[in-house]
Structure formats: C-alpha cells, structure tokens
Amino acid sequence: MEELILVNENDEQVGTGEKLQVHREGRLHRAFSIFVFDSLGRLLLQKRAESKYHSGGLWSNTCCGHPRPGEAVEAAARRRLREEMNFDCELRLHSSFIYRAELDNDLVEWEYDHILFGAYDGDPAPDELEADDWQWIDMHELRAEVERRPGSFTYWLKAALDHLARSGKDSVERV
Fold first, then answer.
1. How far is CA 7 from the centre of its chain?
2. Counting Cβ atoms within 10 Å, is residue 42 exposed (0-12), middle (13-18) or buried (19+)?
3. What is the pTM of this model?
4. Which residues are part of the catalytic machinery?
5. How many CA atoms lie within 13 A of 138 on its CB side?
6. Within its chain, how far is the Cα of 39 from the centroid?
7. Contact yes or no for 87/63 (Cβ under 8 A)
8. Is 119 exposed, middle or buried (CB count within 10 Å of its CB: 0-12, 13-18, 19+)?
C-alpha cells in the first residue's frame, strides 16, 4: 500500500493517505513532474503504459510521481526516474503549481506539483509496466502536437506546459 503526503495549499503536510483512496476522494497531495532535456534542447516524453490505473496510453513528461512520507521531493524524483526510465541525472526544482483534474476510472488528480528539470544525453530503458514508448521532442513541436491532438497527452503535462509558459521559464537554457 503506497502512502501519499496530503498537503494544504501552502504545501504544508496535513496528513497521509492511501494512494488509490486519495485519488478516489480527490484530496490535495504532494507530487512531482520531471522534465529531462538533452543537449539539443529536446524534452524526453514517455507514453504511459496502457495498464496504468489511470491515463494509460497517453504521452506525458519524462516521469511523474509522489514522494513517500518523510522523503524529500528531489530524492523521490530521482528514485522514480531510476524506477521508471532506468537512468539517473541531477534534478533541480524549477517551480510548483496546483492543478485539479477529473480523470478516467472516476479518479481525481488534485496535486501540489513540483516541477523538476534535468539534463541527460542517452536513451532510456523504461520499465514496461510504467511506459510503453518514449521519444525526444522539441518544445515547439510538442506544443504544436498538444494543440493538434490534446487527447493524446496527460492532463498534468498540458497543465505544466501552461504553467511553464506563464512563468516564461520553459526552455533548456534554464536547466
């Protein structure tokens, strides 16, 4: 049973809760979204495994997850990057934002999402239970694809892209 950190709108811990129950009840919890860029400025995307409990088969940012109780966001992010994509790189906290979305399977994602940027040149070897595919993509091309085919991408990727565009800090130069 995986426990999530429940937070208030200031990212202060107010408790813990079982992962699936937290998503059924739509409770605000701490999360992270990792954006890894290569030396050409391309973002590494993953296509979530069809078998995932929500948003299966959708394209998303490099990796996402939740810190465990007592685990720092940066440490949790590096752990999940190794577990999901089978590589490690230095990650730097970029910014944070809150989003709420109703997902498939009657689940609600309400997250205080910490965005982390990293740099890596190489090909990942994703865990097949986590990701069905991956690709490197230019940010301008990604935005055009999201515009053309919004239903092919996770809600949180689109929300994070909007957040990054508003902040004016969505490029690899800031990694």
1. 18
2. middle
3. 0.93
4. 64, 111
5. 4
6. 21
7. no
8. middle
Surface-to-core class of residue 114, CB atoms within 10 Å of its CB (0-12 exposed, 13-18 middle, 19+ buried)? buried
Q: Are strands 29-37 and 108-119 parallel, antiparallel or unpaired?
A: parallel
Token pair for 123 = 């090909």
3-state secondary structure of 151: helix
From first to last of its 175 residues, the chain has per-residue pLDDT tens of 899 999 999 999 999 999 999 999 999 999 999 999 999 999 999 999 999 878 889 999 999 999 999 999 999 999 999 999 999 999 999 999 999 999 878 899 999 999 999 999 999 999 999 999 999 999 999 999 999 999 999 999 999 999 999 887 655 444 4
The answer to whether the beta carbons of residues 109 and 100 sit under 8 Å apart is yes
